[in-house]
Amino acid sequence: MDALTRRRFLLASGVTGAAALAAGGGALAFSRLLGSAARAVEPPGDTLVVVTLYGGNDGLNTVIPYADPAYHANRPQLAYPVEKVLPLDGALGLNPALTGLRRLWDDKRLGIVLGVGYPQPDRSHFRSMDIWQTGVPHGPVTTGWVGRWLDDTAAPVGTAVSFEPVIPPLLVGRRHIGSCVSYQGLDLPPWVDPGLVAELGIAEPGEPAMQARAASAYADLLTLQRVIGGMTGSAGSPREVPEPPVPATGTGGESALSAQLALVAHCVEVGVPTRVYSVSLGGFDTHADELSTQELLLRQLDTALSAFADRMAQSAAGRRVTVIVYSEFGRRVRANASDGTDHGTAGPVLVLGHQVRGGFHGEQPSLTDLDHGDLKATADFRDVFGSVLGSVLHADPSRYFDGYQPRMLPLVNTG
């Protein structure tokens, strides 16, 4: 492809403008992220993957108190019959869609922290998510708890990465900010030759820097597409089935969790020194027709997390990965008139990986001793996040929660 044809194509496609926009806001090319593995001076350390479920996941239909009569009385149409629940003990069980997580539980690779919340809960999606990601429940702040850790460690670019279109507040510090690598590759129609498109990424002598950067984006997008769509697990597991669309709720989050985690897995396996990854799944604002919607979402979550955990178990670097899964709040105990649930307070947090201490942590909230119809939190979210900060990132958690001293929970055994 001659330089003039290439330049005309780039200008006509608008990629030069897109690359200019991507130059800010912490955007990082996937190829540069992968290249950091070769530049790493030391082997990668323990790694934390933060999975955000946007919309307020119904914790009572995720980790189900199936033996409690109050659960069935408050949700006559939404409560799962005992025979459908995947029992974990004599009182609590998993949603029937979570068969992979049940297997991880049996393998002692899944821990569940019960009743997690924060003081004076806020039922706004955006304020509550802001609280969870900043780690400060009183008053607005402009930095996230991971971002403050980045500041403290003077972390280089790529230490914390979000495989989402925008960087979440979680990764924003005062002086340092996480990087953003969108998981969406370049999906070519069958009649387009990938080799021809790849030529667009070859640098031309003397071209403007921004045009060269825009051109290289094509090669980067093709690499992303190969990693997401063409990779198999190291044990030869089959390619993942494309995920069905998630109902839009306007509360944030992405729809392709498996794709995001495939990129995380590849980075871990090739030795990228990133310490924190952020991924997400949206659509959990289930005010109506909750059973079908939440089961769809939980099945996607289960498929993505269990496949990721199995893949990580196959390498030394992967066995040093810990995953934590949370949502901005749970739902109310009583079902509403639309076969759904409204915004609530406390809910379970999942922690999984090879180094996780499997089993229950904390106490299940009472379904009869309520705060105006909502669960009373039995665990503070800062204790959970502080515990993974200390055990996985080897940091002093008291430095990152605005004066709060986290109570360390025995969630993760790390070196």
Number of strands: 12
How much β-strand is present in the residues? 5-15%
Which architecture would the CATH scheme give at its second level?
A: 3-Layer(aba) Sandwich
- Count of runs of 4 or more consecutive helical residues: 12
Order of helices and strands: HHHEEHEEHEHHEEHHHEHEEEEH
Shape estimate = globular
CATH top level?
Answer: Alpha Beta
**Average of the residue pLDDT scores:** 85
Helix content: 25-40%
* Unreliable segments of 5+ consecutive residues: 3-25, 231-242
**CATH topological fold name:** Alkaline Phosphatase, subunit A
The largest sheet is: 9 strands, mixed
Task: Walk me through the structure.
The protein is an alpha/beta fold and 415 residues long. The protein has one domain: 3-Layer(aba) Sandwich (Alkaline Phosphatase, subunit A), CATH 3.40.720. 33% of the residues lie in helices and 12% in strands. It has twelve helices and twelve strands. Strands 1, 5, 6, 7, 8, 9, 10, 11 and 12 form a nine-stranded mixed β-sheet that branches. A three-stranded antiparallel β-sheet has the order 2-4-3. α5 crosses α11 and α10 runs parallel beside α11. It starts with a helix and ends in a 24-residue tail after the last helix. The N terminus is likely disordered.
Brief sketch in words of this structure:
The chain contains twelve helices and twelve strands. By secondary structure, the protein is an alpha/beta fold. The protein has one domain (27-189, 249-399): Alkaline Phosphatase, subunit A (3-Layer(aba) Sandwich).
